[in-house]
Design brief:
Length: 257
């Protein structure tokens, strides 16, 4: 019966996909622009990578441009990344470019999955696997389970490296610091919290702050700014794209060793 086949097709291939992703090289938490760019370059390099986003539609803060004006501004330094994703763009002024937020967000997602990354939507990462003082995976649950406050245990997904790409909240870093009595690689040893807006400093520092913040745990995008206490940069997205590429390149190098 076609009705049963349709249901079986979804269920059996979904669980195959989930099972394939129980042991990863890299688990990315958060499907914002920095995390998606990281997923794409990692997958392209043949790395086993999955990305978890709590929302139905990953893409983070990129769909809405700024104040729902759905245009994305980025600077010259990020142009090669935009070209890698085959996104249309226009030159604006002073080394600035613009692209459509719907085209660019969907292109990032499409290219990442097409390159071999698996994106799990509606998954919230509520904790990490922490063994021998290293982050070794993520603990995931359905977002609706957490929203409803249902008493349902999560599942574990193991990974050689975890990336915190959760944006302004830097949720993974906060959880790791709070639960395990450890120090992150920041001035205070904890999550400092982002500073007020400064475009130039913010864009520069977000890329500099993209790093391994604790053994096994990398941080990228706005989470990197929030953890290290650097300025927010406002609605310019080059730094996010470059941060995602940087974290991918760092991990690819590390996996080669
Ligand atoms: O905030 P977000 O877009 O991440 P980003 O890559 O980009 C920031 C920009 O959008 C913008 C900006 C540009 O200059 O400042 O704000 O740093 O996306 C973060 C994603 O993480 C998901 C959340 O749903 C969002 O899509 N997320 C957050 N916490 C969790 C999570 C969690 N615990 N588990 C799963 N997903």
């Amino acid at each position: 019966m076609i009705e049963t086949q349709v249901s079986k097709g979804i269920i059996s291939t979904y669980f195959e996909k989930l099972e394939k992703n129980l042991e990863l090289d890299v688990a990315i938490v958060g499907g914002g622009p920095s995390g998606i760019v990281a997923a794409y370059y990692l997958a392209k390099a043949g790395v086993r990578v999955a990305q978890f986003d709590r929302k139905l539609s990953p893409g983070g803060g990129m769909w809405g441009g700024a104040m729902m004006f759905n245009q994305i501004v980025f600077q010259e330094e990020a142009l090669d990344i935009v070209k890698d994703f085959n996104i249309n763009y226009e030159s604006y002024e002073d080394n600035l470019y613009v692209m459509d937020s719907i085209e660019s967000t969907s292109a990032l997602l499409y290219q990442a999955v097409h390159a071999g990354a698996t994106v799990f939507n509606c998954y919230s990462v509520e904790d990490v696997v922490f063994k021998n003082n290293e982050v070794r995976g993520v603990v995931v649950n359905w977002t609706p389970v957490l929203r409803e406050g249902l008493h349902v245990d999560p599942l574990n997904i193991m990974a050689k490296y975890v990336i915190d790409g959760t944006g302004h909240d830097s949720e993974v870093c906060k959880t790791v610091a709070r639960k395990n009595g450890i120090r992150l690689d920041t001035e205070t040893g904890g999550v400092i919290g982002e500073r007020s807006l400064d475009v130039v400093a913010g864009e520069d520092e977000v890329v500099k702050g993209t790093k391994e913040i604790y053994p096994g745990l990398y941080v990228c995008g706005m989470a990197a700014s929030a953890v290290s206490g650097t300025p927010r940069m406002g609605p310019i997205f080059g730094g996010m794209l470059m941060s995602g590429k940087k974290v991918a390149d760092m991990i690819i190098e590390r996996l080669k060793k």
